[in-house]
Amino acid sequence: MLLSGGLDSATALAIARSQGFACYALSVDYGQRHAAELQGAARVARSAGVVEHRTMRVDLAGIGGSALTDPRIAVPEAPTRGIPVTYVPARNTLMLALALGWAEVLDARDIFLGVNVLDSSGYPDCRPEFIAAFAALAAVATKAGVEGAPARIHTPLIEWTKAQIISEGTRLGVDYAQTVSCYQADGEGRACGRCDACRLRRAGFAAAGIADPTRYQPV
Amino acid sequence: MLLSGGLDSATALAIARSQGFACYALSVDYGQRHAAELQGAARVARSAGVVEHRTMRVDLAGIGGSALTDPRIAVPEAPTRGIPVTYVPARNTLMLALALGWAEVLDARDIFLGVNVLDSSGYPDCRPEFIAAFAALAAVATKAGVEGAPARIHTPLIEWTKAQIISEGTRLGVDYAQTVSCYQADGEGRACGRCDACRLRRAGFAAAGIADPTRYQPV
Q1: What gap in Å lies between CA B186 and CA B182, rounded to an integer?
Q2: What string of pLDDT tens digits covers the 219 residues of chain B?
Q3: Which of B87, B93, B146 sits opposite A97 (nearest CB)?
Q4: Which residues sit opposite B111 in a β-bridge?
Q5: Considering the domain boundaries, does residue B139 fall inside one?
Q6: What is the ipTM of this complex?
Q7: Domain that holds residue B48
C-alpha cells in the first residue's frame, strides 16, 4: 500500500482494510517540499493499524524538474492548463517500483494505491492506462510474475470524484484531520488553502456536504 | 544511460558514444554490498567523457530479499538453477524509473542500459519482454510520452554473449580493468573469482580470446 499522507491514499488504505487485507504501508520521501505529508502518513498508518509502515528515501530532488521537489519552481496558486509544474517526473513509476520490490520480498500479491484521474490535475501517471501498463510490466519484471502469480495493482479510487472519495472514507471512519494534501503545508502540517491540491480538497468536502476538518494556516 | 560499473554497462556506454550520443550517466546506490562497483562506474564515466555522472541513492537494502543487499544471504559460488538469490526484487524497474525521471528533466529521448539475457543468470528483468513492457509504460507514464515523444529504451547487448560484448567493447576501446563485475569485490575493487558474475566474466574473456584484465583477490 503506497501511503502518501494525503486524503486519497488514506481512503485507499481504509478500503483495503475493509476488504480484509493485512496492510504494509510504504511512504516515499522523494525530497518533496511538503514533508508534513510524511508525518501525516505516519499518523494515518498508526490509526489504520497497519502491520508495518516504512518510509524509503529516494533523492528525486537531485534531478529536479518539479515544483514539488525544486524550491526554485513556485507552486501555482491558480488553475493551470495541461500538465502542471507540480508533476514530478516518473514519480508514480518509481513509487510503484519500490512497492513492487517490497511486495515481492513480503510475498504479497496485492498493491494498493490511491491514484485518481478525475481530480488528478492532469498527471500522466494517474491514468488507468498507466496503471494497466504498470500491471503488465509487473507480470514480466518479477520472480512472482515469472512464476505465474504477478502482483495485482488495486486503484479503488481511480474513477471517483473527490466528493465520492471523502464520502466513502468518512463512512469507513477515516479521520481526514490526520491527512495533509497541501503542496506547501507549514511545519505544523497546516494547509495554505490556495494551491491546486488545497482547492481540490476543499471543493471535495463542500461537494460531499461534509465539514472540512483541514487545519489552515492563519491568513 | 544506466551505468553500474560492470562490464556490460561500460560496453553499452561505449556503443552509445560511438553512435554520437552525448551521454548522461546514472548510477544507483541501492545498498549493494559490492560498493566497489560504484567506484568502477565513476572511473568508466570519466574515461568515456560523459556530460554528467550522477549517483542516486535508494535504500533497497531496507527491503532485503537479495544476496546483493542483505548480508545474511550468502552469494552463491556454484551455479544455481532458476532465479538466483542475487536477484534484487524490482531492481531494473526501479533503476529505469529513475532514468526515466532524469531523462524527462533533461528532455532526453533515449535511455541506454546494458542488460543482457543470454548470460544474465535468469533475472526476469533482463529479458526483452521486460524491456518492451517498460517502453510501453514509459509511453503512458510521462509528459514526454503523453506529448507523443516517449523515451526509447536501447539495449544494444540484450541478445549478445559475454564474448561478443567483450569483443565489441574492446574494439571500441573500453578498458575493462576499470570495471567491476564481482558480487563480492573487496575494498580495492578486486574480484573474488568464484561468484556467478566472476565466472561469467572470466568465461567471456576466454571465449573472446582476449586477455582478462580483471584484478583478482589473492587466494
Answers
A1: 9
A2: 999 999 999 999 999 999 999 999 999 888 776 678 889 999 999 999 999 999 888 877 777 766 666 767 777 776 666 667 777 778 899 999 999 999 988 999 999 999 988 765 678 888 999 999 999 999 999 888 888 888 999 999 999 999 999 999 999 999 999 999 888 888 888 999 998 889 989 999 999 999 999 999 997
A3: B93
A4: B153
A5: yes
A6: 0.87
A7: 7-208
